[in-house]
Design brief:
266 residues, alpha/beta, two-stranded antiparallel sheet, 43% helix, 15% strand, globular
């Protein structure tokens, strides 16, 4: 159950931790991942304090993850990941594999290098093709904002994604030097808020490098500021992380001060 909304998320670590847990995409995207790794991940996804929103894995492990989880926890798999190439056939093949695996959500990497080169047509073609390949599934578009860098490019990536039917805008793959930042998040949330068609429908996902409840709370506060409190649900807000769950559990158990969980890879 979504907790009551405090005025300032950073000042209420327990409430922040509860909502971060409910909105967490618990993630494992290591090249070496095996079914045993994903079985462990799926067990972690059903924490003593409640389940996460979803588990995010490679397409080849999506069917296995689905079989390990209750229906209340979604399975997310990635497409065109992490490279963000402009190869439409390869991206569609990923999406089709995810659909066949019984997953509920697709996180696709926008061809950000094409956008940086001025080829918006390549971006739109790939995103539209992936959207058509996974009808009925939640589609999150990863902008890779740390690579785009400039506000103008991030804004343009947002618009192209929204025009292509994105259900969520996601910051990062977690595989580049710069991942989620509040500066990029503000641009993305602002783009959603400015669109009449998106402002009450499209969600936001911060991913990469978010390891503590305090960091998560900053994104919760920003989303509440720009989209309003009704957007702070798993249907409109997600955090993609692996090690954040450690700090969430520490805060909720009272076993550690907020922010003291060990660092881990995305």
């Amino acid at each position: 159950m979504t907790p009551p909304l405090p005025t300032q998320w950073p000042n209420n670590p327990q409430a922040s931790a509860r909502l971060a847990l409910a909105c967490l995409d618990l993630t494992s995207l290591n090249d070496s991942d095996t079914e045993a790794d994903i079985a462990t991940l799926c067990q972690r996804a059903q924490s003593p304090f409640g389940p996460v929103a979803a588990v995010c894995v490679w397409p080849r492990l999506a069917a296995f993850a689905r079989a390990q989880l209750p229906a209340s926890v979604a399975v997310v798999a990635v497409a065109n990941f992490p490279h963000g190439h402009a190869d439409i056939d390869a991206a569609v093949l990923d999406a089709e594999q995810i659909v066949q695996a019984g997953a509920q959500e697709v996180d696709v990497v926008l061809p950000y290098r094409s956008l940086m080169a001025g080829d918006e047509r390549a971006v739109s073609q790939l995103l539209n093709a992936v959207r058509r390949a996974c009808p009925g599934l939640l589609l999150k578009v990863i902008l890779e904002t740390g690579e785009l860098q400039t506000p103008a490019l991030i804004q343009r990536a947002c618009q192209l994604s929204l025009d292509s039917g994105a259900d969520f805008l996601k910051t990062s793959t977690g595989k580049t030097p710069v991942n989620a930042t509040l500066e990029a998040a503000r641009i993305m949330l602002g783009a959603i808020a400015a669109s009449p068609a998106a402002r009450t429908r499209v969600g936001f996902k911060a991913a990469g490098g978010i390891r503590t409840v305090a960091e998560a709370a900053s994104y919760l506060a920003l989303a509440q500021e720009l989209l309003g409190a009704p957007a702070l649900t798993p249907q409109r807000f997600r955090i993609g992380a692996s090690s954040l769950l450690n700090d969430i559990e520490a805060v909720l158990s009272g076993a550690a001060e907020p922010g003291t969980a060990p660092l881990g890879a995305y």
